[in-house]
Design goal:
The chain has a four-stranded antiparallel beta sheet with strand order 1-2-3-4. The protein is elongated, with a radius of gyration of 20 Å. Helix 3 (about 115-120) crosses helix 4 (about 135-150). The chain has seven helices and eight strands, in the order H-E-E-E-H-E-E-E-E-H-E-H-H-H-H. It has two domains: about 1-75, 2-Layer Sandwich (Double Stranded RNA Binding Domain), CATH 3.30.160.20; about 80-165, 2-Layer Sandwich (Ribosomal Protein S5, domain 2). By secondary structure, the chain is an alpha+beta fold.
Length: about 180
């Protein structure tokens, strides 16, 4: 009983979302043996997110294994103003294709099923997504992560090119931002 309390204290920074549980039956001489597979999303709601897969004979054990796996696979995603993505991006994994687009403030998370869990754990408040192809949660999440891994902030691009952020973004958008702030 003391073990769950320790994990809650140590992992209070992370939000866990259970996306999918799959029950698998193995037929043996005495009947059926059931096993469970869990898919979990873990994030800190500040730009870090990961997903994990765990299998066990009991559901809580499968969830625990998936959560540990997710914490090992955390990635950092740059967010604009801490609430949305920097640019449009497409992700592709197997038959799963996803489109991720930034949205203006107040839009909310417009995403279906497994992708919603990813963005809730990531801390994104405004995003529009579309899943094309499969509705398999494993492939949808992997495609979403492929898209998020390719996300780059203007600061990263400027550092890579050896320029200032204003040179990468362009004067027009900088002037537009100044007008919006002033007016």
């Amino acid at each position: 009983m003391s073990r769950p309390e320790q994990t809650e204290k140590g992992d209070s920074e992370f939000v866990e979302n259970l996306v999918h549980i799959n029950r698998v039956a193995k037929v043996v001489k005495g009947g059926r043996r059931f096993a469970f597979a869990a898919l979990v999303i873990v994030g800190d709601q500040k730009g870090r997110v990961g997903f994990g897969h765990g299998k066990a004979r009991e559901v809580p054990e499968a969830i625990r294994k998936a959560t540990e796996d997710a914490k090992k696979k955390l990635i950092r995603v740059p967010l604009r103003e801490g609430r949305t993505l920097h640019h449009d991006v497409k992700g592709h994994y197997g038959a799963g294709k996803v489109m991720l687009r930034p949205a203006p403030a107040g839009t909310g998370v417009i995403a279906g099923g497994p992708m919603r869990a990813v963005f809730d754990s990531l801390g994104v408040q405004d995003v529009v997504t579309k899943s094309i192809g499969t509705s398999n949660p494993y492939n949808m999440i992997r495609a979403t992560f492929e898209g998020l891994k390719s996300m780059q902030s203007p600061r990263q691009i400027a550092a890579k090119r050896g320029k200032k952020v204003s040179d990468v973004v362009g004067r027009r958008s900088v002037d537009t931002v100044k007008e919006a702030v002033d007016g």
